[in-house]
Amino acid sequence: MDAVTPQASLPIDLSVPQPSSPADADGPAGSFSRRGFLRTAAIAGGGLVAASVAACAPAAGVPSWTYGPSTAPPPGGSPGASAAAPSAAASAAPSAEPSHDHSPAPSGSPAAADHDAEALAVVTRFLDGEYDKVEGAGNQPKQPTLDGDVKVFEFTVDAIQHKVDAVKDPVAALGFDAMWPGPRVDVVEGDKIRAIFKNNMQESTGIHFHGQRLPNSMDGVPLITQDPIHPGDSFTYEFTARTTGSHMYHSHHNATDQVGRGLLGAFIVQPKDPAKRYDQLYGATQDIVWISNDSLGGFTINGRGFPATAPIVASLGEKIAIRFMNEGSMMHPWHLHGMPMHVVARDGYPLGSAAFFADTLGVNPGERWDVIVTAEEPGAWAFHCHILPHAEGPTGMFGMVTALVVNPPATASTILASALLPSLSRPTAGGPIRSAALAGGSTAYTCKIPA
Ligand SMILES: [Cu+2]
User: Fold this and answer.
1) DSSP-assigned letter for residue 263
2) Which pTM does this prediction carry?
3) Does the pLDDT of residue 312 top 50, yes or no?
């Protein structure tokens, strides 16, 4: 089911590096399938009523509510910009955003109709599969070449133009192999690694393998363990991968700027013993890297801000491994609606009998937490940072938001209802999925006007 597998995920058996298959992940079939499943799950779960709101007349006389002292909206209209414009927290000049002021500062609610319309516009972009429309996705699997028994990875370090979503202007970012996040590297415990970085930027850098136990001279800290890698130069890191689990590689030179602009990537060391890998240990069938960042481009998951974030798409009962990695400068508490996360490893180290369940998991800068989610509740479940200024504002959701979409198995009744629908005098706009849901009794896409 590659067609419905989010791009950031891989089949979990990584004893042999997996070939990159962007065509499978991103082709028309993939795009269609992911969007379709998202809507299907939303309908099946009875949620996401937003798609119907636009058809309704706005309710009159809805009282406004404010978190704090009421303030006048800014000149020129409602506090919310148009849905096509970046929200204040999600838009970003490299050095200007986001604000590090975490105090809740709602500036007065916009009119309900304004908020609803703007929130709807953003959600609609998500439901329509914006993730698939933005080119340049990161986390592409990196394939080594072999030099004897050494796995050789050759990277470039590049200045790039990166799109956080389909609407905002590209940002002047940095990327390994010209992508943000950089390529996902999967190796096996005991592998001999040679990683060569060619600096194509106009600034010097140095690359640190975060979490690995390696020779000091390979630690990647310029001016302590090596000279900076100057523009046009290369540096070769060699070590044996002996620290298993979820790790990272990133710039360790002018790092606030360089990591904040995208010089980061996942470095995953699979245990030599296959019985300790997440597919065998937990039955996981997807293995998803989730790298957060909070500088250039605002609040991002794998280099994208909502609504361009990729949903995680699962079948009912499927087990999903998610590797949270925080490359930002703030902590982010990841909150999954509907079902818990089984937290099984921290910084690559298995928790063993100390593994625990949580629905909100704080991930500090530099930390990696691995969780297993059993997709046991059908529907489209919000999955977001619960520092709310990182996720939702007066123009709707933005930044660190995506969804876990759990597809129920197709039932005879829904198939039958879909087949019968043309003979029913019910709305059919929106395609066969919505129609089937309506025929099946969902009220999620019918017009609701507040009393
Ligand atoms: Cu956050």
Assistant:
1) -
2) 0.75
3) yes
| Distance (Å) from CA 291 to ligand 1 centroid | 12
Percentage of the chain beyond pLDDT 90 is: 58
Q: Among residues 296, 309, 362, 351, which one has the least CA distance to residue 130?
A: 309
CA of 306 to the centre of ligand 1 (A): 13
Among residues 92, 228, 264, 252, which one has the least CA distance to residue 163? 92
pLDDT digits (tens, 9 = 90+) for 352-395: 999 999 999 999 999 999 999 999 988 888 999 999 999 999 99
Determine the Cα–Cα distance for residues 332 and 364; give it in Å rounded to an integer.
Answer: 7
* Ligand 1 mean position, distance from CA 293 (Å): 9
Higher-confidence position of 225 and 109: 225
Preceding omega of 307 cis (within 30 degrees of 0):
yes
Query: Given this model, what pLDDT does residue 148 score?
Result: 98
Question: What is the greatest pairwise CA distance in the chain?
Answer: 75
What's the 208 CA to ligand 1 centre distance in angstroms?
24
Tell me the C-alpha distance between 220 and 204, whole Å.
12
| CA distance linking residue 378 with residue 370, whole number of Å | 23
Distance 385 CA to ligand 1 centre (A): 5
215-244: pLDDT as tens digits:
999 999 999 999 999 999 999 999 999 999
Dihedral of CA 102/104/109/114: which sign?
A: positive
**Ligand 1 centre distance from Cα of residue 13 (Å):** 31
- Cα–Cα distance, 180 to 230 (Å, whole number): 21
Measured N-to-C along each axis, helices 112-127 and 28-45 cross at an angle, to the nearest 10 degrees, of 130
C-alpha 379 – ligand 1 centre gap (Å): 24
pLDDT tens-place string over residues 320-356: 999 999 999 999 999 999 999 999 999 999 999 999 9
Over residues 35-45, mean pLDDT: 55
118 touches 82 (CB < 8 A): yes
Give me ligand 1 centre to Cα 85, in Å. Answer: 21
As given in the structure block, the two tokens for residue 316 are 């009912």
* Tokens 């020779």 sit on residue: 215
What integer is the mean pLDDT of 258-286?
97
Ligand 1 center–CA 180 separation, angstroms: 19
Q: Report the SS3 class of residue 369.
A: strand
Q: Which distant-in-sequence residues (6+ apart) come within 8 Å of 240 by Cβ?
A: 190, 191, 192, 193, 214
* Alpha carbon of 431 to ligand 1 centroid (Å): 35
Nearest alpha carbon to residue 312 among 397, 380, 362: 380
